Amino acid sequence: MNAIVRMYPSAVNFLCKIDWLPPLMARLAVGHVFFLSGRGKISDLDKTAGFFEGLGIPFPYAQAVLVSILECVGGVLVMAGLMTRLISIPLAVIMGVAIWTAQWAEVGSLGDFTGLSELLYLIIFLWLCVAGAGKASLDELVSRRFQNSVR
Question: pTM for the whole thing?
């Protein structure tokens, strides 16, 4: 036990040096998922609009176009860490709407709800909105370039 206690400060110091890595990995993973999802929706807007219509979403074709573009472009921006806080807001809203319209009927318990991938994406986008893209991002580079505190 004493060895663990003695190693703890070194471990924390090491982890502090790589604190840029988890936000980068999260952004790359979720951004890639959304880029692919948006690209898939764009490639068959009629199918996407039909799905939205079946869910009772108003103006399904216009919504399909909007969601497709937001997911595709938003995914790229999230991966790059550019305008991350801003783009995370509509992406979080999309996930909230997806939970409400497409998933809610399947939720019968707290476990069902917490098991939704859409909920995980919603939480990640809320985190990115609050915390920003992190040190390994274009937001950080732009912030340093213009020496302001917005990341």
Answer: 0.90
- Cα–Cα separations (whole angstroms), residue 108 to 88, 105, 114, 116: 28, 8, 11, 12
Sign of CA dihedral 126, 32, 133, 83: negative
**DSSP notation for 51-108:** HHHHTT-SSHHHHHHHHHHHHHHHHHHHHHTSSHHHHHHHHHHHHHHHIIIIIGGG--
Backbone dihedral region of 132: left (phi > 0), alpha (psi from -120 to 50 degrees) or beta? Answer: left
DSSP classification of residue 44: T
Q: Which pLDDT score, from 0 to 100, does residue 148 have?
A: 58
Give the pLDDT confidence of 53-87 residue by residue, as tens digits.
999 999 999 999 999 999 999 999 999 999 999 99
The pLDDT score that the predictor gives to residue 150 is 52
C-alpha–C-alpha distance, residues 104 and 42, integer Å: 25
Q: Residue 104 to residues 27, 31, 98: CA-CA distances in angstroms? A: 26, 24, 9
